[in-house]
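#structure-requests
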Amino acid sequence: MQNLREIETFQKTRLWEKVKSVTELAASVKKVVELSTPLLDEINIYMHDYTLHNERHILNVLSIMDALLIGETLAQLSPLECALCIMTAYTHDLAMVLPHEDYKKIFASDEMSEEKAAYQKHRDGFTEELKQLKRLEYSTKKSDKERKQQIEGHILSDFLRKNHPDEKRILVWLNKIEKDADNPSLFEYKGTNYKRALSFIGASHGKGVEWLREKFCKEDGSEDSFHQVIGHEDVNFALPGLLLRLADIMDFDASRAPSILFKQIGLENESELSAPRKISLSEWRKHMAITGWRLDIAQVEPSLFYAANNCPHPVIEKTIKDFANWIDEELLKVPVEFDTLKRRAKYDKRDLKFPLPRKTDLRIVAAKNDAGEPIYIYEDLTFRLDQAEIQQLLMGENLYGDPQLCIRELLQNALDACQLRDLRLKADKPAELVDSINPSELKVTLSWGKDEKTDQEFISVHDNGVGMTLRIITDYFTKLGKSFYRSPEFNSERTALKGQNLNATPISIFGIGILSSFMIAERIEVRTKPGGNQDAYDVTISGPGSLFWLSKGTLKTQGTEIKLFLKSDYQINHDKKNLLETLQRHFFSETSYHQDNKYEIDPLIVAAKCVLNPLYPVEVIAPNAKKIVIDQSFHI
């Protein structure tokens, strides 16, 4: 059995033991390592959002490659195959180094170079980021300038990361290494130059699993061109590529962080965030560097185990699980490709074996608070489209003309929740558990203010209606266009209520529900508690495409509270003097845009225009102002 072990130098690998006695080859490996290592440190000059691809990553990759080879297979490998494994570990990421002259072509030149055109095409895909940059374009604030730099840096980092598996760009760096070594034979062994093959191997880790084999075959026109006999030694150029792709992906670190982390949990601007969303890049590195993992390679039962014992965020848990699924895909594909290599290499008579784990064994435990409770409850929840209903919705006339109308959505949903609780209390056999309450106490509360911890403006809508179970959150709250009040489930309950002379008349029939709140909000926090002894849940949604953060509920009584934390370009302006005049105009619904680039919102105006003769009172509580109640006696 071959186990993974951490190494501090490439010379501690079994691969090097196969190389070091071949003087010519050993000298080339040492020189490639010597000249590529300082280049790798330059990757993070422009890639600030990713972990270092320096020698630590390389040594991890080498350690895994070494561990993947069982003894009898390693014994049959040629010195050049082993040398290629070491050299490709050190050179496969070199294309992420952006020379200063190329940086100037992209950002400092007016000419449309090939590099600039490629970057602009990539940049155009970042629609949300470009909107932020446009809003910040003329700002002179230091924080806004820093924000612009962070966004541009993120886009450039993503461009370099996605485009680095390129054999031509790797070959440029191999030529530089050869020149700096002042040795035109640096990549030669027994009369064969393998420099192009090394560039192919390095690029292959970002391609399809069969790409390397097909590349060699297309180059030389034979189905086994990836195999050559050099001197008296068999050299399978595709084998180091398979080892590299597995080792690179198994080195489970923060360089794998997808864009959702940058956008949703604030790696880019932690100063503006509050717990639990404030996860700095250093914290991400600490937690994403899995707390424990083990690779055991044996011919009977190979295994690959990862543990994350203090996972701080559901987005990180989802990322780990998605990444483990990616590894599992490779663990299925690589053995098939290895068998293809063995079958097609007509002149390679070696009995090479490549046992791999069938899949990853994963254990993730959410971090705990001071009370010993998990800080989140993991559910793979994001907004999901219900195709038929969303199509009907978008083809209709319910699209928003005024972003403030998301407040209407929340108020109407809250009033419906109160009505449903009222009806269930009166029903003989309610469809769901419901807590007792005097119907006269059913109400909706609209309030706003500034968050004490972050000083961020918020609008809150709280009702003591039915609340939401986990099933309602999963099946309806997260599905765009999928309304509970248009579901067969509700229609059945409605029919049963009607049989008892109880009429359910929901009014929340417009738009796309909670998603509309992101027109004015950058983050939404939901606290909800259903009736009876059913679990309460707190839900944080950091953006329309983010994973939902579920945690143990803090709402003590049945109902739902939804709090919108406003985007920086919206501000609340409740003006009592302007209130009556605006309501008298009534149909004036344009949002005013002021010279300080702030959209102003008066939640009371929206409520008074949109909530007419409500069945249950809507209490409007402005900071430092007298409470106003919108009920059936309220008149404009």
